Amino acid sequence: MTYVFPPPEPNCLTVADSGLFFPIRRIFCIGRNYEEHALEMGAVPQRAMPFFFQKSPTFVVAQNHSGDKIEIRHPSATADLQYEVELVVALDTGGRDIAPERAAQHIFGYAIGLDMTRRDLQAVFKGNRWPWDMAKNFDDCAPIGVLHRKADVGEIRTGNMTLDVNARRRQTGNIDQMIWSVNEIISEISKLVELNPGDILFTGTPAGVGRVDDRDTLCATIDQLGSIHVTIKKIDRHPG
Ligand code: MN
After folding, report:
1. Helix (H, G, I), strand (E, B) or coil at 141
2. 21 C-alpha to center of ligand 1: Å?
């Protein structure tokens, strides 16, 4: 096959304690999956039906194998860039109509991720009943730490999660507070689309989301996964 230009390599997560890379196929994110966060967003927590959105794999900024600090660029078009700490789940096998009881066998591993959000744009989109996409899906919108294999850390069903901004605690929660469990999320997405190896899931954020600015440092933790540090870098924009 002759391409018009060389196709890009897949964007990858790094796998802990190995030289392995995990190629990212798609990113599915669940909205309002913790009661207190749904409330702080002005929504009514509900279990009638989950809803999902996507981020583009090219927008992931993956931590390197050494576990160094992750640096992301402050995006354009927002004065209210916000963090959301989340458990990220990576699948190495796919399927359709996966039963919750069999969902865990599709999980390769877990990481700490931030679902960065242009909250002011999201408010405009919500107000107009437009899609959220450009509020959630933009350059560097998904910093993700090293991937820990389920074989090493076990299946994660509970565990504390925290997020600090400049060493001040902003978010606390526990994975067992999810409205839709990880296994239920996998099952529900697989009813909507066929899942594939390389698909990763953002599983929702607890309460306490807020704004960050240039040069802020975020530290996110999940009990079984350690911590990640993310800094916001101002980018000088000039006409292309
Ligand atoms: Mn989120």
Report:
1. coil
2. 24
pTM of the model: 0.97
Nearest residue to 143 (alpha-carbon basis) of 116, 173, 165: 116
The pLDDT value recorded for residue 239 is 66
Is residue 23 predicted with pLDDT exceeding 90?
Answer: yes
Q: Answer yes or no: CATH 3.40.1190.20 is held by domain 12-168+188-233.
A: no
Q: How far is the CA of 4 from the centre of ligand 1 (A)?
A: 36
What distance in Å separates the CA atoms of residue 17 and residue 151, rounded to the nearest whole number? Answer: 12
Bridge partners, 95 (sequence order):
195
Q: What are phi and psi of 92, to 5 degrees?
A: -110, 0
Q: What is the pLDDT of residues 84-127, one digit of tens each?
A: 999 999 999 999 999 999 999 999 999 999 999 999 999 999 99
